């Protein structure tokens, strides 16, 4: 069984904590539920969720503990295109002399994503051959023939006037919304921005009302410009949350410092609920049972663009901090950081991007919920995507074979145990799938 959640904008208060001595309360949303079957993607997940003994290697059979080093990033190296501090002066002077492209807020978020290596091995905004591979194959083929996942086009749009001003110049300076020089784009290529094709292939629909499309694609220019990025200094937002914005390299160092032998990642764009906490704690317990000595949770809320009815980032981060403070999640085995990517709400296409980016941060397990990265249909009263397709696609997606996908287990309020518990269909009458203080799981989408 799985759990379907319908979000509305009716505010109420939910009891966050699992332990009865805690009474932290946060604003939430009305939730309605119905059961759905869950999909198990591979043999390891069958072990995790069905209490089967793992098939033992010769080493583990002899008593050795299962080990797992941090997963290798796509391309073998985490991309870092931030200019060294000793070169920033000269690079800034050069950027001032180049033709300029003014960035929108969403473009700055993508510069941030690329600059820190979340999109490794991508080193800049996509040129046409990369764009077409991403759009049509959800992946990129590298020079050595290997394939890495890249399900979302990461592109920079320009208008006719900007294209004219660039002329034959091969390098351009990128200017932020406030007029500051942010980067140089090298060896550029300009090509046609076929918006209808991009929208149809990314979202599977051209229905009006898609948030990312309405805000950032429809009004964008008719050309795309690709090239290699040189970012003049790290992107900062000065919103009091920059210390949470750890790069893939910083996260890998932190996982090493904590001596993690496994990292399991969980993305949210709304507050942590009781069902989430139960799932995350249970996942760690089961990884320990498999023989891992110190699995670390990466609680990784999305920090880029979100639609208007999602909970604001600052509120979510305050709530996540409270979850650790109250011991709902163990601070010693949990790393909370912000994932800087914008949100497309593109369902099975986008969830591949979410998983791929966490590989680059060192995660080798990824928890996926119902309808990940999905939303309601913008013009009809139904989900835009099949709720189970996201986790099924993740189990088959090219370039994600090295990632272990962990589907959600269904949690609800157990009226006998008087606490959140995983749903047991043999005594279904004992479980409450209701909104309010005894809330079940919602999707991490």
TrEMBL record:
Cellular localization per UniProt: Plastid, Chloroplast
Keyword list, A-Z: ATP-binding, Chloroplast, Nucleotide-binding, Nucleotidyltransferase, Plastid, Transferase, Transit peptide
Family: Belongs to the sulfate adenylyltransferase family.
This protein's pathway: Sulfur metabolism; hydrogen sulfide biosynthesis; sulfite from sulfate: step 1/3
Any one GO MF annotation of this record: sulfate adenylyltransferase (ATP) activity
Source organism of the structure: Populus deltoides
UniProt-listed InterPro entries: ATP-Sase_PUA-like_dom, PUA-like_sf, Rossmann-like_a/b/a_fold, Sulfurylase_cat_dom, Sulphate_adenylyltransferase
Protein name: sulfate adenylyltransferase
Residue intervals of the ATP-sulfurylase PUA-like domain: 71-233
Catalytic activity, EC: 2.7.7.4
Lineage, uppermost ranks: Eukaryota, Viridiplantae, Streptophyta, Embryophyta, Tracheophyta
EC primary class: transferase
């Amino acid at each position: 069984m799985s759990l379907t959640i319908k979000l509305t904008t009716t505010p109420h208060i939910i009891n966050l904590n699992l332990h009865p001595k805690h009474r932290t309360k946060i604003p939430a949303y009305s939730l309605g539920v119905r059961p759905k079957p869950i999909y198990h993607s591979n043999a390891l997940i069958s072990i995790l969720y069905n209490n089967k003994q793992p098939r033992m290697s010769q080493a583990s059979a002899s008593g050795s503990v299962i080990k797992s080093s941090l997963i290798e990033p796509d391309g073998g190296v985490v991309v870092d295109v931030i200019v060294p501090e000793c070169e920033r002066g000269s690079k800034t002077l050069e950027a001032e002399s180049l033709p300029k492209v003014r960035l929108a807020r969403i473009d700055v978020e993508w510069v941030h994503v690329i600059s820190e290596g979340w999109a490794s091995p991508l080193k800049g905004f996509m040129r046409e051959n990369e764009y077409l591979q991403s759009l049509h194959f959800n992946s990129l083929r590298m020079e050595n023939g290997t394939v890495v996942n890249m399900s979302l086009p990461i592109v920079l749009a320009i208008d006719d006037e900007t294209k004219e001003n660039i002329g034959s110049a091969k390098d351009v300076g990128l200017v932020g919304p406030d007029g500051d020089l942010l980067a140089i784009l090298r060896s550029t290529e300009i090509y046609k921005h076929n918006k209808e094709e991009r929208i149809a292939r990314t979202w599977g629909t051209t229905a009006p009302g898609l948030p990312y499309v309405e805000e950032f694609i429809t009004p964008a220019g008719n050309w795309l410009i690709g090239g290699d990025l040189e970012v003049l200094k790290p992107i900062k937002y000065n919103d009091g949350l920059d210390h949470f914005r750890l790069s893939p390299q910083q996260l890998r160092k932190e996982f090493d410092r904590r001596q993690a032998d496994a990292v399991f990642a969980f993305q949210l764009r709304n507050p942590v609920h009781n069902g989430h906490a139960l799932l995350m704690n249970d996942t760690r317990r089961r990884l320990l049972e498999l023989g891992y000595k110190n699995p670390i949770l990466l609680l990784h809320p999305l920090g880029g663009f979100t639609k208007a009815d999602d909970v604001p980032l600052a509120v979510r981060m305050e709530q996540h901090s409270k979850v650790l403070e109250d011991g709902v999640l163990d601070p010693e085995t949990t790393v909370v950081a912000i994932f800087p990517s914008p949100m497309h709400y593109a369902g099975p296409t986008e969830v591949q991007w979410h998983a791929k980016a966490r590989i680059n941060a060192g995660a080798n397990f990824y928890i996926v919920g119902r309808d990940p990265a999905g939303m309601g249909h913008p013009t009809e009263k139904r989900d835009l995507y099949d709720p189970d397709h996201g986790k099924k696609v993740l189990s088959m997606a090219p370039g994600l074979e090295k990632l272990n996908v962990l589907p959600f287990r269904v949690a609800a309020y157990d009226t006998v145990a008087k606490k959140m518990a995983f749903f047991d269909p043999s005594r279904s009458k004992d479980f409450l799938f209701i909104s309010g203080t005894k809330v079940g799981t919602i999707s991490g989408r």
